[in-house]
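Protein: NAD(P)-dependent oxidoreductase
Species: Mumia zhuanghuii
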Amino acid sequence: TDSDVTLIGLGLMGKALAGALLGAGHRTTVWNRTAAKAEELVAQGALLADSADSAVTASPVIITCVSDYASLQQVLTPVADGLGGRVLVNLTSGDSAQAQEMARWTEKQGGIYLDGAIMAVPPTIGTAAAVILLSGPESAFTTHQSTFDALGTTAYLGEDHGLSALYDVAGLSMMWGVLNAWLHGVALLGTAGVNASTYTPFAAQIAQETVGWLAGYADQVDSATYPPDDATLDTHAGGMTHLIEESERLGVNAEMPRLFKALVDRAIAAGQGGSSYPVLVEQFAQPRATS
Ligand code: NDP
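Structure follows.
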């Protein structure tokens, strides 16, 4: 082969990925639908493939980063034959079903598939701050880990190709949960003339304290036992009522605490008022068999 690794898709993210591979000394072939976007990388030593087909066959590892799965299929379908015996690492954003479907398709061509999610913006690519989630066959990950490490901090999640996409969206849920709770507090304190910067150290302290509970609560969820060592759901419900009433009285949007309360009320109606908070997982998850 001509190079160690091929990068297909040189948008904002693809360019950063290719730059990091070159910076780490990997012989890198690049291809982009709009060839002009490769110029800077070629000046840095990248090899420019003259077609998607020669890009695929240039390296044992092919990293793709295009807009979406429809674009990915447009690029790869005509060059599918070339994937045999190679490792395709797709960092295009998508959902878990798309990743699993892409894995089946790649395996049908005789290739090996790893799916990835990039938890970073382009300027951080190539630094430890850029977290790249990868899932699929572990042997493919370990064989090529030194290549992936050039892109940032890689985390291997498991054999199920859908895991990268699932961690990706779960991470977003966590992020928006924290951000919306913080903004609700900013609005509450704003009614008393306290600005966001003044309130925020307190908010950060509470968020950190709450994060500290997660590992213990995860054990409760995994064992489906919810001993109320700290506070019962009934007690939480009382606090939520204060939050809703205070918000409404001050003219602050109360939709979020009302949603929290609706979930808790349902669990209490199901007889779980004496359990600890994470029993609420049953309002989110499908019922499942416990061992
Ligand atoms: P850009 O819009 O900058 O680049 C899109 C890339 O896809 C271009 O290389 C474009 O080629 C290519 N492309 C689109 N459609 C086709 C097609 N039909 N055939 C061939 N190539 C096509 O997007 P980004 O680089 O920012 O994002 C790429 C992926 O990375 C996305 O899935 C995004 O969600 C993900 N991502 C991006 C992050 C970011 O901060 N930018 C963060 C985390 C993930 P052309 O140049 O010819 O148009």
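Remarks: The mean pLDDT is 96.
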